[in-house]
Every structure is written in structure tokens, then in C-alpha cells.
Amino acid sequence: MTAKTAAAKYNCYKHINMKKNKLGNTDIYVTPIGLGVLTIGNTQLDLPLQEGAEIVRYAYDKGINLFDTAQYYETYPYMREAFKDVDLSLDNPDRPVIASKSLDCTYEAMEAAILECLDALGMDRIDIFKMHEVRQDPDWDDRAGAWQCLLDYKAKGIVRAIGVSTHHIDVVERMAGVPECDIVFPLINYAGLGIRKGSGAGTAEEMAAAIQKCLAAGKGIFAMKAFGGGNLTGTYMKALDYVRDLECHTIMVGMGKKKEIDDLIAYAEDRLPADYQPDVTFKKIHIDQGDCEGCGTCLDRCPNKAIYINERGLADVNYDICLTCGYCAPVCPVRAIIMW
Ligand code: SF4
Ligand code: SF4
After folding, report:
1. Centre of ligand 2 from the C-alpha of residue 298, in Å
2. Out of 90, 195, 249, 314, which could bridge 292 as a Cys pair, Cβ 3.0 to 4.6 Å?
3. What predicted TM-score, i.e. pTM, was given to this entire model?
4. pLDDT for the residue numbered 18
């Protein structure tokens, strides 16, 4: 079934009033809101396959055209199920734009990650593939093999656009000077939560300035963590307005409920009043102190240094800086880290 037939069957697209933004110098057009698929997966809501796929499909049917996932998220099955009747070929102008990424450092591992993604989603080419979570120097240089692989797969036409996701101002600034980098996916929110600079914290203003350099250099910009991992959802409009005013091409938001999708689409279509505030239920990472063995693995994995070892020798979370990204959960050997 083609996307148009699917649209007719599911009565799709009737609400689509969202304009699309051109992603920098690429010829890819995306809606100003994208769905971060992390949220439905096993590091966060851990939704059953059909339930998670329904969220992805709902977002697509309501008009969102950009879906960002990652090898690390283990969410490809949801997307495969959600889009099982959609023509995902790049020849279909109504296709969902799919972006994935990998933490891998070497050429071989990045190649395997690209091929795994294509196979898992039943595609022969993909719009966007990125290096996932590039950190401060020397991480970029250490991952030169992975970047070369992305360059080669772009040259072969298998990946249309390549780039990086990062929490680091240094990396965003550096990408402005890398001509082959098409897409930059920086962490940005008005409070500066989770923004890194060198080995310490950076500010929202510094990251905003780095983003402007990338915009001037023709990069496509996805904005990450506009709500600071849920910590800024209580100032809903302020959080979104801040990022939108930076003229990022899309705001990528992890959504696990249809209401959240409806709200963000209404925002993108300027249908929300300036004082709109959704009823939000904050979900947090919890470390089961009965299961934790104090091994410390999660401390190294946390990008924001939000986990510490408490006086009992067990892991605990500093909620003032936790981004609710869920990255720590999969590395726990005893599954002591959960989100509810
Ligand atoms: S503790 Fe760290 S890795 Fe875990 S959810 Fe919070 S910010 Fe993310
Ligand atoms: S990885 Fe798991 S067991 Fe190890 S310190 Fe963290 S929560 Fe505890």
C-alpha cells in the first residue's frame, strides 16, 4: 500500500496545517515538531509493541513527518510496525523522514549500525543518519572512522544527510566548520539544563550562539530537550517559545501519549493560547535501592553526572540535573534503574 492509499484508509493528513522547514542546505523538509522515539522504548515507557507503534502512527497520521530514533534505543520494531503499510522509499514524497544514529566509533561498527537500521526498518536508503552523543574533544577525533563511514554512505546515496547529536557547545561550534556535516542535533533549553562545555556545564546563551553559527553555515538543526527532560514542562509555552525563537528547524520531543502529540501539533499550528499549560505527570528515573549493587556503571553512562553513590554505597539520582533521558537504565546489570 502506498502512503497515499494508506492516508485514504486511515483518513490521514486532514489535520495537516503545519508548514515544513527546509533542513539547512539539504533538500529535506521537516515539520517544526518531530517525534523522538526514545520515549516509547525500553529505557523509558517500555510500551508493548502495538501500543508504541500506535503512538508513532498517530503522530504520522496527525501530520508529524520527522521521527528520530537510534540504534541504542532499540525502537526499530515499533517503527517497522507503525509504518508497515507505508511506502518508506525515498521516492515517496509523503514518507516519514526517518533519522537514526549510532554511538559507534569505528568504520566497521558504524557500517553495521547503518545496515542494521535499514534491515530493521525494511528500507534500502534512509534520509538521515548521525553520530550519536558526540562529546567534547577528543571524542570527535576518536570517532573519525565512524564519520568516514557516514561520508562514504552519503557518497553512495544510501544516507541522504549526515550529522551529529550532542549535548556539548564545543561540538556544535566545531560542526559549524565541518562542511560535510548536514545536521546538528544539539541539546538546548531556556534553563540550560544538561548543556555541556568542555568537561563542565555550559549556558543556554552559549549554546544558542553556537546554534546560530551552525544555522549561518547552512546546517539543519534539530533541537533536543526543549523541556529539559521534563523538568521544564511546567513552563510549557516558555520552553517551546525559547527554542522556536532560535529558529531551529524542528523541535524533537519524546512523546508517549496522544494528548502530548495533539498539544505539540496545536502549538506548531499556533492554536494554543499564550498561557496554555497542559496537565503534566512528571516521570522520573528511580533506582531501586533493593536491587542496586553499587557497581557504578550507571555513573559513567550518565551524560549529565546526575547519578552519585550515596552513603549506603548505592546509586542515587540528583533530580536537580537529571534530564530523564533514560540512558542509564540499559547499562544497569541488575535492572535496578526504572522510570515511572
Ligand atoms: S540519571 Fe543521567 S542517564 Fe539517567 S535519566 Fe538522569 S540524566 Fe539520564
Ligand atoms: S548500574 Fe545498576 S547496580 Fe550498578 S550502581 Fe547503577 S543502579 Fe546500581
Report:
1. 6
2. 314
3. 0.83
4. 82
